[in-house]
Design a protein that fits this description.
The chain has helices spanning about 25-30, 50-60, 80-85, 115-130, 185-195, 215-225, 245-255, 270-285, 325-340, 355-360; strands at about 5, 10-15, 40, 45-50, 65-75, 100-105, 135, 150-155, 160-165, 205, 265-270, 290-295, 310-315, 345-350, 365-370, 375-385. It has about 375 residues and is α/β, with parallel strands linked by helices. The chain folds into two domains: about 5-165, VC0802-like; about 185-225 and about 260-385, Rossmann fold (3-Layer(aba) Sandwich). It is elongated, with a radius of gyration of 23 Å.
Length: about 375
């Protein structure tokens, strides 16, 4: 089989990884960003140059990671893998003297020993670029260092080799240093906002705001600010990528963005520590003036009068033993408060199951299923009965 490389007419063969269930929302935002993307299993792909890779990393709110595919081939023996590995254009993504880490997975393949696969490809990199150091990556936390991450996937004897362009996962925007219990990932919060169809001109309330992720992501949307504008990415250190290119892309995205006149964005939580964390995170995100946080229980929740608004939130699930009855009561209270004080409003929330949804007292629509913190959840929306 002819080896397929990253070289295309546009430069790179790119792939954005998206959490299962969130692909339609991520695909829509990628097209709004100007990327000519195609939906594929696990995310979407496009052909582009380094500028498009940086635009994706800086501008995408829902994707988890952006990869560039370096090679794709069949290999049923280590000898074949070694031969193919020497043909991979490592010099496209690895600088001389750099550190390289391999993350390898193998399913239903004759080559199943991930350490052996990593070793053969390490030899290929060192042969192409003397002075490079290599190792096998253990977990996501290691993505924070300066090493180039190479992602290797074997499936039914077919090997796909990709270079990570993101570094830390894209949900790590850089503002959330303080967290509350059961935080929602920034990428899931962004997907929930898109699923809610909030237009930024109506009030938005999160009555279980925790460390403020949903209101902060809403403020970034309303202000037209790219989520990755305050952080750096692995692709910035690749050979051939100009040191000034990332700054240029950030400036271009800022110039294209439209800051809308937005209504109130409000977060509340009964936990004083959560409110303190949310306030600090909003300051780091540069949106403190666009959001407000107050300490109050769900029974005391308030909603701006005089206009239809949105409630977008991640209520407690009660996954620990002995919490189920308390959480059912909490959801029942939540539903009563919505019916009494937010009639006609639109809601969007994460839910672990139909049993809790029934406690709201009105029907909801499931628009997607995904996982939050390892817990299967449903993205549900509804109009609160007037």
């Amino acid at each position: 089989m002819k080896q397929q490389g990253a070289e295309t007419a546009a430069g790179f063969d790119c792939f954005a990884i998206v959490a299962p269930g969130l692909e339609p929302f991520a695909l829509a935002e990628a097209r709004e960003l100007g990327l000519d993307v195609r939906a594929v299993d696990g995310g979407f792909e496009w052909s582009g140059d380094a500028r498009s890779v940086l635009a994706a990393n800086i501008g995408l709110r829902i994707a988890s990671r952006v990869l560039v595919r370096l090679a794709s081939f069949d290999a049923r023996s280590f000898a074949e893998l070694e031969r193919r590995g020497r043909q991979v254009p490592w010099q496209r993504v690895v600088r001389e003297g750099a550190a390289v880490r391999f993350r390898v997975t193998s399913r239903k393949s004759k080559l199943y020993h991930t350490g052996g696969i990593a070793q053969r490809l390490s030899d290929a990199v060192r042969r192409a670029l003397p002075g490079v150091s290599t190792s096998e990556a253990a977990d996501e936390a290691e993505d924070l260092d300066a090493a180039t991450l190479i992602v290797v996937r074997f499936l039914r004897d077919h090997c796909t080799i990709s270079a990570d362009t993101s570094g830390a996962l894209l949900h790590r925007r850089g503002y959330r240093e303080a967290t509350a219990k059961a935080p929602v990932r920034e990428t899931i919060a962004a997907a929930l906002l898109r699923a809610s169809e909030w237009d930024a001109t109506a009030p938005l309330v999160d009555p279980f705001c925790g460390s403020g992720t949903i209101p902060i992501e809403a403020a970034l949307v309303a202000l037209g600010r790219a989520p990755g504008v305050r952080r750096h990415f692995a692709v910035e250190h690749w050979p051939g990528v100009r040191a000034t290119l990332a700054a240029e892309v950030r400036t271009e995205l800022a110039a294209r963005a439209v800051a809308r006149e937005h209504a109130a964005i409000i977060g509340s939580d009964r936990d004083a520590g959560a409110i303190a964390a949310a306030t600090a995170n909003a300051m780091r995100a540069g949106v403190a003036e666009a959001v407000s946080f107050t300490e109050r229980s769900i029974s005391a929740a308030s909603f701006p009068a005089g206009a239809r608004g949105w409630v977008v939130t991640n209520p407690p699930y009660g996954v620990r033993v002995g919490e189920s009855s308390k959480v059912r009561d909490l959801w029942a209270t939540f539903g009563r408060v919505l019916r009494e004080r937010a009639g006609g409003w639109r809601i969007a929330l994460l839910s672990p199951d139909m049993a809790l949804e029934r406690q709201l007292g009105f029907p909801v629509q499931v628009v997607a299923t995904t996982s939050n913190g390892g817990i299967p959840v449903r993205l549900v929306v509804a109009d609160v009965p007037a």
